Amino acid sequence: MLANSSLISSNFSTLLFLRNQKVATRISFPNSDKIKNPPKTQFFNNSISGFGVKGRLYVCHSSLNLQNQQDPSMEKDVDGSTKENELGGGSNNGGNGDQWDWTTSFVLFGLWSGLMYYVFFLAPNQIPLTDMYFLKKLLNLKGDDGFQMNEVLVGLWYIMGLWPLVYSMLLLPTARSSKGSIPVWPFLVLSCFGGAYVLIPYFALWKPPPPPVEETELQRLPLNLLESKLTAGITMAAGLGIIFYAGLSSGDVWKEFYQYFRESRFIHAMSIDFSLLSAFAPFWIYNDMTARKWYDKGSWLLPLSVIPFLGPALYLLLRPSIPTVPALSSPTSTEEK
């Protein structure tokens, strides 16, 4: 419809520059009869909204004014979401869900798939009967038969039992997904049996920001237990005892454990699980720290969070309380008012 399509610029940077200016573009052709077979010009929805024809006058209306008129409502939405994030404690990268995009999920699912394939098909499995014997001994399903269990293996087993509690305290409530998304509690329950192999799928599906925490939530289970300094202190003390028990073992005990690691699928997979939980912990500590608005004062704990188990346990012991919002009134009480 236009004889020369270059009259309308497709430079979007120019449109962005003119975004806050009232622009009304009018292009007229005095003698439209001379135009033969005008080329078809594609109009982008975000730059040109309408095209009107009056006699021999072609009028091109700009939608920049409409965008300018919509800016106040857009700003209200942005301000409202900002306030909601502040009430909810925020999340990593300012609580913007777009920061945790599909590429992160794709990478995490790829990592999880590779780990599962390795554990089930590539990990060493030379002593499957010994693995079943170790598992029964660790679960106290086998009586005292005179066999001395490896101290490092026993310490690793018990420290793996504390990791689900640590991650429950880190992920609830500051790493809950947005309303309507995947809940975190099924993954935390299953992590008691599968560890990081169960938690990584939730990491991939996680959608920040978390919903705000109401005051009444901190007075009920499980948050009153997970936010308790007593729980954090017991976890820290138990972890220190287990690590000292295994760490003070002789060199021969460590050599024996390394041999088990090379032969046993059970011990091999559990060792990788411990490494994964230790590797992911600093990120969730940072997420929890920013949600509690404690980054300025508690950032010195981030380097310490790379210490397996003890770093996260120390953070849980020192962190402040989670910011809360007043409890929403019930519909019945609202009607009475």
TrEMBL record:
Keywords: Membrane, Transmembrane, Transmembrane helix. Residues 69-96 are annotated as: Disordered. Residues 73-86 have a biased composition (Basic and acidic residues). The keyword Cell membrane does not apply. Residues 87-96 have a biased composition (Gly residues). The chain crosses the membrane at residues 106-127, 147-172, 184-204, 230-254, 266-286, 298-318. The keyword Metal-binding does not apply. PANTHER family: PTHR36009, TRANSMEMBRANE PROTEIN. This is Cardiolipin synthase N-terminal domain-containing protein. It comes from Solanum tuberosum (Potato).
